[in-house]
Amino acid sequence: MNTYIRVDQSGYIMGYMQVPEYDAIFPEDEIWVEIGELPMGLLSSEFKYRYDHDMGSISLTDKPMLPVVPYTFWDEVLGEWTDPRELQEKKDGKWSEIKAARDAEEFSTFTWDSYTFQCDEVSQQRLQGAVLRAQIDPEQSVDWTLADNTAQTFTATEIKQVGLALAAHVDSCHVKARQVRAQIEAAANETELNAINW
Fold first, then answer.
1. Which of 69, 105, 146, 168 has its CA 20 to 30 A from that of 51?
2. 38 and 58 share a domain?
3. Band of the pLDDT at 18, cuts 50, 70, 90?
4. pLDDT tens across 98-146, in order?
5. Domain range enclosing 190
6. φ/ψ of residue 174, rounded to 5
7. Which of 23, 51, 82 finishes a domain?
8. How would you classify the pairing of strands 13-19 and 2-7?
């Protein structure tokens, strides 16, 4: 039995077969190469192997065997997983990534006067309630648990300032997101789009 590998135009191994020499007939539009024996890890590797036509050698590469979304199409000429979506679809996907990053930052933490506050939705609602109480009763004080789980007492005036800091934090996240969205819409090609980050 002889061992053959099928390679794409960039040399990456796309398959193999073992057949008797007299049965070795392959489609004309495919590249098949006879080799001595298969590399030990070829059948179980998470990464692709590549055949060097000049050296006649096979080596493991850093290209994943399976695609990682959205790079779902293997380009045999480039030797890369590629994203087959149109530019507008890629822009929509980028905007979804940016919104997720915006939300992660908005609902993480914010700082006022060196104190770090939790900023998830429940914490925001509780702080808004505390600010409302402080407006009704300017003489009250509020015991608040900070992001590091320590407790701190704030005056009504301080709590209102914390509320303003929260509003500024949320606003800055959305201002930044709008600026990034404008960059996404202005991107003329995939290279420009890929350069945009949160």
1. 69
2. yes
3. confident
4. 999 999 999 999 999 999 999 999 999 999 999 999 999 999 999 999 9
5. 87-194
6. -75, -35
7. 82
8. antiparallel
